[in-house]
Amino acid sequence: TEAGRALLGVAFGELGVSRVVATTALHNHGSQAVLRKLGFVEAGEKLVWTTEGEWRPSKVFYVGSLNAASV
Q: With 60 as the cut, is the pLDDT of residue 68 above it?
């Protein structure tokens, strides 16, 4: 969570991005909890191409500069 806060700080501050998107495996509840703790909002599910060379369903999360104020 600490590293995530630092990365979001750079993204929204130094880099000036307006939104950060993250994906997790459907059943990776630990990573999803960390994203929620950082202020990410669940946006739905999509298929993601993996390093194993296959499509897998994933959850998509996003955080925008407005809802990152508490990070």
A: no
